[in-house]
C-alpha cells in the first residue's frame, strides 16, 4: 500500500470477531512454530544441518509475517485495537500509537523551527562533555533532566521549547540526561 490506511470497526460484535480471529491466527502460528522446533530437535540429533537451517528459515519467516501483520501493534504490542497501516514504517500500528506518532512528528517540526540542527548537536555535545553527564564504564552522574535544563538555559532556549524538547526526548527513550545520550541522540 502506498497510502496510510486505517481499519476501524465500530460494531462491538464485529470487534469481538476480529479479536478472536487475531487470537486464532496467533495460536495457529505458535503451534506451527512449536512443531517446527520439535522437528529441529530431531534434525540436531541426526546432524541434518541442511534441514535444520531450512526449518529455522521457516520459523523466522513465520515470525516476521506475524510481526508485519495487522494482528498486533508493533509499537505497543496490543492486539485488540483498530489498526493503521503506515507506509513509511511499512507496518501496522494501533490508532493510539499512530496518534502519538503524529503528535510527536508535529512536535519535532515545531522544535526544529525554534532550534536548529546545530543547536541540537551543540546541546548533545555539551551534555556528553565535561559540563554534562559524565558517562563512563563505571557509571554516570545522572540527575533527571538537571544538566539538560541548565545547558538549554545557557544556550538561551526558552522554557516552553525546553519542555517540548525534553518531551520529545522522552518519546525517543531519553527519560533522563544519560538516556538522552544513550537513546534519544540517534533520533536527532
Task: Report on the architecture of this protein.
It is a single chain. This protein has 188 residues and is mainly alpha-helical. It folds into 2 domains: 93 residues, no CATH class; 73 residues, no CATH class. The protein has 7 helices and 3 strands; from the N terminus they run βααββααααα. A 3-stranded antiparallel sheet has the order 1-2-3. A hairpin with a 4-residue loop joins strand 2 and strand 3. Helix 1 packs antiparallel against helix 2 and helix 3 packs across helix 6.
The count of helical stretches stands at: 7
Strand arrangement across the biggest beta sheet: 1-2-3
Main structural class: mainly alpha
Question: Any idea what the shape is?
Answer: extended
Count up the domains.
Answer: 2
pLDDT averaged over residues = 90
Strand content: 5-15%
Number of strand segments: 3
Helix content: 55-70%
Distance between the termini: 28 Å
* Main beta-sheet strand count, sense and barrel state: 3 strands, antiparallel
What's the SSE pattern? EHHEEHHHHH
- The radius of gyration is 23 Å
Low-confidence stretches: none
Amino acid at each position: 500500500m502506498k497510502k496510510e490506511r486505517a481499519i476501524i470497526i465500530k460494531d462491538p460484535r464485529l470487534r469481538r470477531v476480529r479479536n478472536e480471529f487475531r487470537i486464532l491466527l496467533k495460536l495457529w502460528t505458535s503451534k506451527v512454530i512449536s512443531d517446527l522446533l520439535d522437528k529441529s530437535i530431531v534434525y540436531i540429533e541426526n546432524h541434518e544441518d541442511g534441514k535444520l537451517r531450512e526449518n529455522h528459515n521457516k520459523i523466522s519467516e513465520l515470525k516476521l509475517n506475524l510481526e508485519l501483520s495487522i494482528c498486533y501493534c508493533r509499537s505497543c504490542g496490543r492486539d485488540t485495537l483498530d489498526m493503521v497501516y503506515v507506509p513509511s514504517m511499512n507496518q501496522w500500528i494501533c490508532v493510539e500509537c499512530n496518534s502519538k506518532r503524529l503528535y510527536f512528528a508535529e512536535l519535532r517540526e515545531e522544535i526544529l523551527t525554534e532550534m536548529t540542527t546545530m543547536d541540537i548537536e551543540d546541546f548533545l555535545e555539551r551534555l556528553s562533555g565535561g559540563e554534562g553527564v559524565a558517562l563512563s564504564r563505571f557509571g554516570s552522574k545522572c540527575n533527571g533532566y538537571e544538566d539538560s535544563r541548565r545547558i538549554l538555559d545557557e544556550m538561551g532556549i526558552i522554557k516552553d521549547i525546553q519542555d517540548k524538547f525534553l518531551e520529545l526526548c522522552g518519546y525517543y527513550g531519553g527519560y533522563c540526561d544519560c538516556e538522552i545520550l544513550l537513546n534519544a541522540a540517534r533520533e536527532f
